[in-house]
Amino acid sequence: MKAEAIKEYYIINGELRDTNDLEIFSKIEKPPIYEVIRVIKRVPLFLEDHLERMFQSANIINYSIERSEAEITRDIRELIHKNQIDNLNIKLISTDVERNGKVFLAYFIESFYPPEEYYREGIRTILFHYERENPNAKVLISSFKEQVAKELKEKGAFEALLVNKHGYIPEGSRSNMFFVKGDKVYTAPKGDVLLGITRKHILSICNKLNIKVIEENIHVEDLNSLDGGFMSGTSVNVLPITTIDNIKIDSINNKIIKEINNTYVREIEKYINSYNGKWI
Fold first, then answer.
1. So what's the pLDDT on residue 141?
2. Fewest C-beta atoms under 10 Å: which of 38, 194, 211, 214?
3. Is 276 helix (H, G, I), strand (E, B) or coil?
């Protein structure tokens, strides 16, 4: 596995290590269970949700994480404090390593946050034919990531919409997908996708705003009839889609998408303010 830890320190099984020594990464061969958490103003956003999902992923594949939520929380706090980081993504990994046993890593990674113009002008997306073996478990498959990255680069797109063998689009390569038709929002059923943390909060927001959500996959043949679409994720929040391959969608002017985005941004601010300096 690529040694992707950055900044001065990372953590292995609760022990602080210098990033000059990243030998452990070369020993990781099995696809690890992982989570990526965005840190904003030294606060790990929606931490409780991320840890809950990580343990659920482990249960799905009958894997035991031998570090408690309280211990992981302490790791994250120490990582933020020792590296003096205000805004960046943290990655958590749990896996078995030969001759090392169970390993739990926490470290900062290179992070990309879309510039304001992406939200103002929308993003280009492509269709990518692929079906996850177990969509509910967040397991890292390096070959898939490399294939998608290559395709995105060649076509100048930001995200790939995954198309299954029946022609339906359950999710993006690194995101959950939402589509708007009239006054309704469509997104994949929970059994078909990884249950994103941002997705969870968007569904709650739609409920508060009395926006009807239909958990139903969109077929590629229905793309021309969409009024809007957006991707959601840890680093992107709510990001409107302008094109899917050659199909244009006026998402940036869609009232429902704007309302969801504005409410989600306020929810982030509320969460950060609720910590009131606890993580500094």
1. 58
2. 214
3. coil
